[in-house]
Amino acid sequence: MTAAKLRAYRIAAAGALAYTVPVILWGAFVRISGSGAGCGQHWPTCRGEIVPLAPSTATVIEFTHRVTSGLCLPIVIALALAARAVFPAHHPARRAAWWGVFFMVLEAAVGAGLVLLEYVAGDTSPARAYWMAGHLLNTYLLTGAQLLALWWALGRDIPGRPIPEGSAFARGRVIAAVRAAPPSLRAFIVVGALALCVVSMTGAVTALGDTLFPLATEASLQERITGGSGAHIFERLRIVHPALAMVTAFGLIVAPWGVLPDRQRRNALVLACAAGAQVVAGIANVALSAPGWMQLVHLDFALTVWLAFVWASVEAVHDAACAASPDPGAPSARRDGTASL
Ligand code: HEM
After folding, report:
1. pLDDT digit string (tens) for 163-197?
2. Which member of 19, 35, 77, 184 has the lowest number of beta carbons within 10 Å of its beta carbon?
3. Beta carbons of 305 and 142 less than 8 angstroms apart
């Protein structure tokens, strides 16, 4: 591996993630603008055509999402092949990049399922909520894998503390590495990841409800929270997300200071600020009756909180794995594989 190749891979991994985030936001815009049926019940063609002629605004919005999200798959496949060319066999960056491909295929499959089952536009069937929640969960797993594909290429070694060769962490086995971490860190990561995923999945259902049953600006507090009498299940569930989110955000603001290693104060700060900003955005969302632009801001912040959490977690597990190193003086087993050259 040459330094130039490694640099190029890092840029490509950062670029792939940076490209995916706006595509996700545009996907939310498709929902917010009610354009999910812009291509009719056709997939992968749009209204039966490869490129729709004389499209409506909804068709342009949906078609743009299909083209930009369609490009994501070749991008993540190219990144995985690049990881294969740049890193030695069994390197964690290679593993993470292939997980990125897996979740991207799943993301496309869920998106296609939504269209083919007609869970789009004004459809209010409860089953749509499960699909939206599943879509959001997969989005998190996808972006998490993409972040790890980048992180493991950055070679963020701790001077004098090599990652134990052959350890679960060095092989990129995330679950095994978390299980080997100290109990408080393990609890933080497991509870934090589960809470964030559940909170965000309930948020996806709230977002769907707000799109299908928009809140009037003069709506009472009770209507904002429970939808009022005779409300649809999506409206009645409105209270669930803010309630769970408040508790989770509190945990994400407070817990990192006690759990993350001292040298990771910056990660704790970033996570706490992101979670705090998300609470402010959430409250503004409720107060403003969730206008489209605010929904996009809130989703963007949610992704930021998630990625900050993944980053802080992987760095803390890395620290823990290095602290368990039997021989701190040994030559560094670098994640970028350069030590073996
Ligand atoms: C850690 C904190 C939070 C996270 C991770 C989070 C995450 C999310 C996510 C992922 C969505 C779905 C976005 C979409 O699919 O477009 C959402 C929606 C929503 N959230 Fe939160 N949220 C948090 C805090 C809050 C708080 C504290 C409130 C209110 C007090 C709130 C109110 C809402 C509302 C009203 C929606 C539906 C409208 C929209 O899509 O923006 N959230 N949230």
Report:
1. 777 777 877 788 888 888 899 999 999 999 999 99
2. 184
3. no
**Ligand 1, CB cutoff 6 Å, lining residues:** 28, 136, 196, 199-200, 203-204, 206-207, 210, 241-242, 245-246, 248-249, 275, 278-279, 282-283, 285-286, 290, 295, 298-299, 302, 305
Cα dihedral 255, 256, 262, 264 in deg (nearest 10)? 180
Residues 6 or more apart whose CB falls under 8 angstroms from that of 203 comprise 136, 241, 245, 298, 302
113-164 per-position pLDDT tens digit: 888 888 877 888 989 999 999 999 999 999 999 999 999 998 767 766 767 7
Bridge partners, residue 158, by sequence:
161
Residues 6+ away with beta carbon under 8 Å from 264 = 312, 315, 316, 319
**Which residues contact residue 244 at a Cβ distance below 8 angstroms, ignoring those fewer than 6 apart?**
195, 198, 199, 202
Measured in Å, residue 242 CA sits from the centre of ligand 1 at 7
Q: For a pocket test of ligand 1, which of 30, 107, 114, 241 has the largest count of ligand atoms closer than 8 A to its C-beta?
A: 241
Q: Give per-residue pLDDT as tens, 8-31.
A: 999 999 999 999 999 999 999 988
CA terminus-to-terminus distance, the chain: 8
Going by pLDDT thresholds of 50, 70 and 90, the confidence category of residue 292 is very high
Q: Taking the CA atoms of the chain, what radius of gyration do you get in angstroms?
A: 22
Per domain, the residue ranges of the chain are 1-155, 160-330
DSSP state of 161: B
Please give the number of the atom of ligand 1 that sits closest to the Cα of 297. 41
Residues facing 161 on adjacent strands: 158
- Residues in the chain, total: 341
Tokens 């769970």, residue located: 244
pTM of the model: 0.90
In Å, how far are 147, 177, 251, 262, 272 from 265, measured between CA atoms? 20, 22, 16, 6, 10
Q: How many angstroms separate the alpha carbon of residue 282 from the centre of ligand 1?
A: 6
